[in-house]
Specification:
One of its GO terms (cellular component) is cytosol. By secondary structure, this protein is an alpha/beta fold. The protein has two domains: 119 residues, Response regulator (Rossmann fold, 3-Layer(aba) Sandwich); 95 residues, Winged helix-like DNA-binding domain superfamily/Winged helix DNA-binding domain (Arc Repressor Mutant, subunit A), CATH 1.10.10. 41% of the residues lie in helices and 20% in strands. The chain has a five-stranded parallel β-sheet with strand order 2-1-3-4-5, sandwiched between helices. Strands 6-7-8-9 form a four-stranded antiparallel β-sheet, covered by helices on one side. Strand 10 and strand 11 form a beta hairpin. The chain is globular, with a radius of gyration of 19 Å.
């Protein structure tokens, strides 16, 4: 998952960033409220963590600006204030949740997972597409109960596909999700990751889970049917490792 942290205190930002990276999240950091709003407009985040006390504008203004811009990114307000009035004000401004500091690390991670999966239409922490199951809690992927060993980037790609199930994702979207606009490699690296992910899933018994949409990108089969393509979408067959290797030379 890709999370935006809006936090003006450098020490607190490092602590929260390290905590979330330790459980597998990709973190971008905005120091000011204006920067936070701009990053929410520019990039596609799974969730934003918003400190309510910021150097320029307060968190309530960030919430109002984000919602006025029709940004539907889930936002969790963070504050040392534990009073009901502060929470009500944050929820009224557009927050999806409110957590007080000092927070418990497992609780913060659990809240993030719950909010993100609900925002994508999932009620359970285990996502499933056909024979493939992905646990947001343990970051494990299984096929027919058999564990599939994925690299960090392969997991992030599959997680993004499952959370955006039924949506065609461009290679730009994958690059943005994996690298956050920093030190991005050439776009063809996404083809390589997809090829390796497909191979691992197929070896475990799940064929054609990730489909190529000509001229647009990749998508996960929404109906879980491994033999027939989703209706109304022009597909290409999965490419072999040899074909892909030739194409990226």
């Amino acid at each position: 998952m890709r999370v935006l942290l809006v936090e003006g205190d450098g020490s607190a930002a490092r602590g929260t960033s390290n905590t979330l990276r330790s459980v597998g999240y990709m973190i971008d950091h905005a120091v000011t409220g204006h920067e936070g709003v701009e990053m929410l407009r520019r990039y596609d985040y799974d969730l934003a963590l918003l400190e309510m006390v910021l150097p320029d504008i307060d968190g309530y203004e960030v919430l109002r600006a984000a919602r006025a811009a029709r940004l539907d990114t889930p936002i969790v307000a963070m504050s040392s204030l534990n009073g009901a009035q502060a929470k009500v004000r944050a929820f009224s401004a557009g927050a999806d949740d409110y957590i007080t500091r000092p927070y418990d690390t497992p609780e913060l991670a659990a809240r993030i997972q719950a909010i993100v999966r609900r925002s994508k239409g999932y009620s359970q922490p285990v996502l499933q597409a056909g024979l493939v199951k992905l646990s947001l809690d343990s970051r494990e992927v299984t096929v027919k109960g058999r564990l599939v060993h994925l690299t960090g980037k392969e997991y992030m790609i599959l997680e993004l596909l499952m959370l955006r199930r039924g949506t065609v994702l461009s290679k730009f979207a994958f690059l943005d999700h994996l690298y956050g606009g920093m030190d991005e490699p050439e776009m063809k690296i996404i083809d390589v990751f997809i090829c390796k992910l497909r191979k691992k899933l197929q070896q475990a018994g799940a064929k054609n889970v990730v489909t190529t949409v000509w001229g647009q990108g990749y998508m996960l089969r929404e109906d879980g049917d491994e033999d027939a393509p989703p209706s109304g979408v022009m597909m290409s067959p999965p490419r072999s490792s040899e074909e892909l290797a030739l194409s990226v030379v």
